[in-house]
Amino acid sequence: MLPVGVNFTVQTHYGTSCTLLLFHRNATEPYAILPFPEAYKIGDVYSMIVFGLDIEEFEYAYQIDGPYDPKNGLTFDPNAVLLDPYARSVAGPRIWGNRKIDGYHARVVRDVFDWGVMPQSTRTMSDLIIYELHVRGFTYHPSSGVTHRGTFAGLKEKIPYLKELGINAVELMPIFEFDETMNSREVDGKTLLDYWGYNTVGFFAPNIRYNSTEEYNQEGTELKELIKALHDNGIEVILDVVFNHTAEGNELGPTFCFKGFDNKVYYMLTPDGHYYNFSGCGNTLNCNNPIVRLLILECLRYWAVSYRIDGFRFDLASILGRHEDGSPLNNPPLLELLATDPILRNVKLIAEAWDAGGLYQVGRFPASKRWAEWNGRYRDALRAYLKGDSWHSWDAAQSITGSGDIYGGHYSDSSSNYAGYNSCVNFLTCHDGFTLYDLYSYNEKHNEANGWHNTDGADDNRSWNCGFEGDCDDPAVISLRYRMIRNACTVLMCSRGTPMFLAGDEFGNTQYGNNNAYCQDNEISWLDWGLLEKNRDLFEFFKFMIAYRRKHPIIRKKLPDAVCGMEPLRTHDVNSEKTDIPRDTKTMAVSFAGYNPLTGKDDLVYVALNTHWESVRITVPFLGNRLAWYLSVNTWGDGQNRYFYPEGEEVRIDHEFIMPPRTVAVFTGREVRS
After folding, report:
1. What share of the chain is helix, strand, coil (3-state, %, to 5)?
2. What is the mean pLDDT of residues 502-523?
3. Which of 98-102, 250-254, 542-546, 639-643 shows the lowest mean pLDDT across its residues?
4. How far does Cα 124 stand from its chain's mean position?
5. Residue extent(s) of CATH 2.60.40.1180 domains in the chain
6. pLDDT value for 413
7. For residue 237, what pLDDT is reported?
8. Cβ burial 357-372 (10 Å sphere, 16+ → b, else e)
9. Tell me, what's the pLDDT at 2?
């Protein structure tokens, strides 16, 4: 390949000089040190073209000189080797867990990937079923059966499984370049790493240790092949992005990028020059500084354009709405910028609407008409109610019906201003907390393996061990645990809003009671695919519920009024004629009704929940002479391990139904079969 000219451009506001360092591949000492002439600077931007370079033979970094006055936020070190903040690839060892280096170098990336004809997805938030997964943990266990374990290619091998399950969106835990060896420790003979990856090193670069092969100067190709394959199979890709802090930490942390370019610009600093820590990770990005806003915007545009990403989930997103002094802004410039950007116009924006500094904004996240939110109220209310805490009945009912009370409008409001199901992402489990199996196997967290004497992780889990803590061989306890899992799945898939669940929940994956497995790169976090065969009936149940949700659009969104006269969305007491449920009821129901123009028929769904430890007799609404209710789901089962009934096999229910203890049932209204 002929040598070419490469343009190097960076900016620093408070820095006084800039030097380019060129390294041979994998070298630690530069072979060329090139100061930027002052004539190559306009404003705060240094730029020059270096000719005679072969991009496959060099790596690069920068050094910035400037004043050193930590109390005023100025921490320039002319000897620090600095990574390009806009680097498309970060050089380093490709072997996971083997990245002990003194500094980061960047590579120039040649993008030659052919996407072919691939229109952007037009699927709405309400039509998504999101499956959250960790790229490495999803396939690294030997039982995964893939050739390229723990990689983008390994995940690609699992696409047939994802299609069979029926989900249509994957949410990938952080795949930006991060250092998993940061803060590595030895605990009980095991090396603990930064497994989750919520400490970003480079925002524009994919993590090369998720590749199965070397990709010198074409980094990102394997990831793009994965995304294209997912898209070709009707599955969208959402990235979990971390713009609230970086891996540089606080005053004791390293300087490898932003601290060296402009510490005072990129981080929120106290009046005496220390780091605000609203992230809980040592520092907080100064997101509403104009320079940082531009970096975040350009980053998201890059991933949307160059990687065809369909959406972003923003970790601790409330930080994105804080002023430079840490105070919350009423109309944060960054959130407004992202919400109105033309390139991001059809990209999903999902906020984790809280931060580690106590700012909790679920239901009132700024620019919420454009942003969706992780619905923390849904998680808390349904976890509590499903295990029998009846005093959460009202919050549970509101959550199932779209959380209209916190997203604008009552559940029966049909106005166009009702955000509801367009705004909330409903979930009971995610990477942070118990798996669904553990939610019903443990009363308490068991994080001893993390090495913090079980002091880390959330204490408010609203879990229930069904009578025995941890592993158990009591058939009654085991049966109850799996019924509780089916209950949770049924309610999640029959709630208005966007459902999301954690990978492995569909076959009973466990983390052995660890609810904060951020550092566990081992059997605690890796999905054990042997459980898929062991719990095949649970997997089939998830499949059915996902398919049921997709078949009945009335669950997801408002349709024209039902011909039969049922109201679009209602809660019900044990007696279906009573639509106001008692404050502490243990049994209730929710009905969805509308006319589906595609089928030319009413779409009618009735979901009943009995969280009591005793059976309860309920009634179902009267539908007239032509229509009847048919039992589609009964999480108690029929005694033959049958918990759902495909269309044509359902059991007709005339007016009453006995709800067994701790059971959820779903009824479908349809024309009476002769």
Report:
1. 25, 25, 50
2. 98
3. 98-102
4. 17
5. 558-671
6. 39
7. 98
8. bebebbbebbbbebbb
9. 57
Residue 667 has phi, psi (to 5 degrees) of -115, 140
The amino acid present at 382, given as its one-letter code, is: L
Cα 627 to Cα 432: distance, rounded to the nearest angstrom: 44
The single-letter code of the amino acid at 630 is Y
Q: What is the Cα–Cα distance from 513 to 511, expressed in whole angstroms?
A: 5
| pLDDT tens, position by position, 420-442 | 557 899 999 999 999 999 999 99
Catalytic residues: 315, 352
Sheet holding 45-53, edge to edge: 4-11, 45-53, 41-42
Residue 670: CB atoms within 10 Å: 20
Using 50, 70 and 90 to split pLDDT, how confident is the model at 45?
A: very high
Query: How far, in Å, CA of 204 to CA of 301, rounded?
Result: 10
Structure tokens at 547: 């398919």
Residue 673 has pLDDT above 90, yes or no: no
> Quick check: 236 pLDDT over 60?
yes
- Within the chain, which residue ranges are assigned CATH 3.20.20.80? 126-374+427-432+495-549
CA distance 295 to 285: 11
Rg, the chain, Cα only: 27
Strands 68-69 vs 74-75: parallel, antiparallel or unpaired: antiparallel
Level-2 CATH architecture, domain 558-671: Sandwich (2.60)
CATH class, domain 126-374+427-432+495-549, is alpha beta
Do strands 372-374 and 424-427 pair parallel, antiparallel, or not at all (unpaired)? Answer: parallel
β partners of residue 572: 589
Is the entire prediction scored with pTM above 0.85?
yes
Judged against a pLDDT cut of 60, whether residue 530 lies above it is answered with yes
d(CA 475, CA 494): 28
Q: 31: Cβ–Cβ under 8 A, 6 or more apart, which residues?
A: 22, 23, 24
Instruction: Catalogue the E-assigned strands of 375-441.
Output: 424-427
Q: 226 and 156 in contact (C-beta within 8 Å)?
A: yes
